[in-house]
Amino acid sequence: MSGAASQQLRLVLASASPARLATLRAAGVEPRVVVSRVDEDAMLADATQRYGELEPADVALLLARAKCEDVAARLADPSERLDGARSDLVLGCDSVLEIDGVAYGKPGTAEAARRRWELMAGRSGLLHSGHWLVDLRATEAGGTGATLGATGSTVVHFARLCAQEIDGYVATGEPLNVAGAFTIDGLGGPYIERIEGDHHNVVGLSLPLVRELLAELGASWHQLAAPVPPAGFPRLIHTVLDATDARGLAEFYRAFLGWGYRPGDQAPADAGDDSDWLVLTDPAGPAVLAVNQVASLAGHPRPTHQSPAQVHHDYAVPTLDELRRQRQRAVALGATLLLDRSDDPDHPLCTLLDPAGHRFCILVDP
């Protein structure tokens, strides 16, 4: 095997979808995530004006291509101030659900999600996931400069739901912001009777289809596998924060970051809660943060912006608007704003204290 054919390839995922990221991670791939800035509504309106009504499968592929090529162009543009890490391949994806020849994306509102499920219940639909791949490798590294894609389609059979079940599912909020108003790997799983085709395609990223696209570029799936950690060294499993109210601080980060508890660490149904060690996990899998109950934090002065914190967390968001929104969310959940540098044209960020006095920053990293 040649050097180019055996080289580890660095994949960029042009999607904010936690489900797509989790799918790749579960298959041993650790991509870099760069979210596209494509205006989907404007893109589809322009395409419809140019070419007439689009088939649902074409909608998925068109949006996947637009997202992928947007991120690929930004990675090549020094003015974007991306971090400069090597990027070999960019993968963009988009999903739509087809029923009666009509393409349905994210409902966006509870009422729209309810109407969607009234239409879907007891019927079958076709879930289309468009995939687009751009080769950014240099020619000497085996690069082709190719930009290519394909659409995977899976038949989904929905259960017959009563009005109470539809209302209950919609009330979770999950169907509002996912293609087709359902997930197969989340809270919507019980309402999917069966599928015909690739399960991963319904999640939003078909692993076999990506493998086929890689082969067209002269690359192999195993080249995307995450590097094996070196032997003989300790492994970081999570960061631990001390707090006099472990549950309170864990709840702050659970709500702020959208994480969940390690099995068994959820708050008890009754009023009694003597938990002194709680672990939060990223939806993609790893345990990343633990909270340790302590009697007091005496001897640990509450930091200010001028005083050193010794250790702090950085949390990234893709845009300035999202930075401002997350700053407001953090304060509403109980954080204290120390520094607002959101108007900095080069490095916008905000510094805050969590309810236990630990410093953290929110910064823009597209």
Overall mean pLDDT score?
Answer: 87
Number of helices: 10
Shape: globular
Low-confidence stretches: none
Number of strands: 15
- Tell me the radius of gyration: 23 Å
Distance between the termini: 36 Å
Oligomer: single chain
Give the helices and strands as they follow along the chain: HEHEHHEEHEEHEHHEHEEEEHEEE
Structural class category: alpha/beta
- The helix fraction, in percent, is 25-40%
What fraction of the residues are assigned to beta strands by DSSP?
15-25%
Major β-sheet, in short?
Answer: 7 strands, mixed
Structural summary, described in words:
This protein is of the alpha/beta class and 366 residues long. It is built from ten helices and 15 strands. The chain has helices at 3-6, 18-26, 40-51, 56-75, 110-120, 163-171, 199-203, 207-216, 246-257, 320-332; strands at residues 11-13, 32-33, 89-99, 102-104, 124-135, 147-158, 192-196, 239-243, 260-261, 277-281, 287-293, 313-317, 336-341, 349-353, 359-364. The strands form three sheets. Strands 1, 2, 3, 4, 5, 6 and 7 form a seven-stranded mixed β-sheet that branches. β10 (277-281) and β11 form a beta hairpin. α5 crosses α6. The chain is globular, with a radius of gyration of 23 Å. 34% of the residues are buried. The model has no long low-confidence stretch (mean pLDDT 87).
